[in-house]
Amino acid sequence: MSIEKDTRKYYEHSKERSYLHPVIQAFSVPKYKWISQQINLKNKTFLEVGGGNGYFSQHFEKETNLTVLDISKNQLDSNPASNKIIGSAYNLPFEDNSFDIVFCSNLLHHLENPLQAIKEMARVSKKQVIISEPNIFNPILFLGSLIIKHERGALKSSKEFLTKLLNQANLKIIKHTFIGGIVMPNGTPEFVLPFSNPSSKSKWSFFQIFITEKE
Fold it and tell me: 179 with 208: CB under 8 angstroms?
């Protein structure tokens, strides 16, 4: 079975933490804050691709005109966003330049063809595409990606690899950061939070964010 099929099977049947869980807040809030400090989100038309059960949707819903797309009905049923659509990242059901900003988090490493998904996000964006993905140079995340079957796509998730994909989609990187301590949404125990440093920004951080613009 492919990584993509493994992932879909996992998320169709998994019982993940609520978007209100303290670990989810520690995972999502620092990333959301960093993005909102870099670009103006207020009242922008905003598409979240692979929004799942709302880890980031809960924040973007407050500031933007948000649409959330995911292939899993099971995930979207728990998402707090008002406007939700079932669909594929490979064939977004929107016209060209439909949204001011398009965003995805922890999606690309689950796909067999991440470049196609990035090109689709660029197509429907008027200007900006933002992606958040694992940083494979974090040793704990690297080990977890080796062990967990549906996370093995993260073994490619270096800054260099993602930069190449974004460039191939004619997206110009305007901001990049490594971010996040030991906060894995469904793997980190709550008692670890006081020691997790979720806002850390170093080359060993668990995740990275790219803010890009169409060339």
Answer: yes
Cα distance between residue 210 and residue 175, in whole Å: 6
Alpha helix positions (H), 39-155? 57-63, 73-76, 114-124, 139-147
Q: What is the CATH number of the domain that holds 153?
A: 3.40.50.150
- Pair 57, 78: CB distance under 8 Å: no
Is the separation of the CB atoms in 159 and 152 below 8 Å? no
The domain in which residue 200 lies consists of 21-214
Amino acid at 72: S
Condensed to tens digits (0 to 9), the pLDDT of residues 154-210 reads 888 899 999 999 999 999 999 999 998 888 887 888 888 888 888 889 898 999 999
- Residue 158 has φ and ψ, to the nearest 5°, of -100, 165
Q: pLDDT digit string (tens) for 26-83?
A: 999 999 999 999 999 999 999 999 999 999 999 999 999 999 999 999 899 999 999 9
Dihedral of CA atoms 172, 199, 47, 175 in degrees, nearest 10, equals: -10
Query: Can you tell me the distance from the alpha carbon of 190 to that of 119, in angstroms, rounded to the nearest whole number?
Result: 37
- Residue 2 belongs to some domain of the structure: no
Strands 65-70 and 45-49: parallel
Q: How many domains, the chain?
A: 1
Question: Where does the chain show beta strands of DSSP type E?
Answer: 45-49, 65-70, 84-86, 99-105, 125-134, 171-179, 207-214
